[in-house]
């Protein structure tokens, strides 16, 4: 029974990562109504990540995590060649344009909202890109450590807010 549970758990994790790969360059979903201002990992209003190229799961420039965003595209990452090569090796090519989905293809230096799970994989592999904390959704803290993000921040704060342990 334990082996069966482990296989199901692994398949669920794999499904989430595959969902992340499939959704990154896809058409944006219909916007959902939210009554509250999204917050960043510093407990401040979420700032824009990039308007050119237009990023975000909702393609509104912000790393807002939509209700149906299974990949949790909330990390505002600064692309670099190592990360782009890594994510391509994982089956998610972020460098090749796809005119059908209005995806421009990314270059080093550009900002893009990436999956929390993909960012963690890159961290574990030693290729995590820099992040913009002010533009990274607080919702990623359900699976990422703020200290890890802060160590890779281009905008580190003087003091980090308290964070509950992620549920990884």
Automatic annotation (TrEMBL):
**UniProt entry tagged with the keyword Signal:** yes
Matches recorded under Gene3D superfamilies: Protein of unknown function DUF2237
Signal sequence region: 1-25
Q: Name one Pfam family in it.
A: DUF2237
Q: Sorted alphabetically, which keywords does the UniProt record give?
A: Signal
**Recorded superkingdom:** Bacteria
| Signal is among the record's keywords | yes
Annotated protein name in UniProt:
Uncharacterized conserved protein, DUF2237 family
Source organism (scientific name) = Thiomonas bhubaneswarensis
């Amino acid at each position: 029974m334990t082996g069966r549970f482990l296989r199901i758990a692994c398949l669920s994790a794999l499904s989430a990562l595959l969902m992340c790969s499939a959704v990154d360059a896809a058409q944006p979903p219909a916007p959902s109504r939210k009554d509250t201002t999204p917050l960043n990992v510093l407990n401040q209003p979420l700032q824009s990540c990039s308007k050119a190229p237009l990023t975000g799961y909702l393609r509104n420039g912000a790393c807002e995590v939509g209700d149906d965003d299974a990949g949790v595209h909330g990390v505002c990452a600064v692309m670099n060649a190592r990360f782009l090569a890594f994510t391509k090796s994982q089956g998610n090519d972020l460098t090749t344009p796809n005119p059908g989905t209005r995806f421009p293809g990314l270059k080093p230096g550009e900002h893009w909202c990436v999956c929390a799970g993909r960012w963690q994989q890159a961290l574990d592999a030693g290729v995590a890109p820099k992040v913009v904390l002010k533009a990274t959704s607080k919702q990623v803290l359900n699976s990422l450590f703020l200290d890890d993000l802060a160590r890779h921040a281009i905008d580190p704060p003087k003091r980090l807010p308290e964070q509950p342990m992620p549920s990884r």
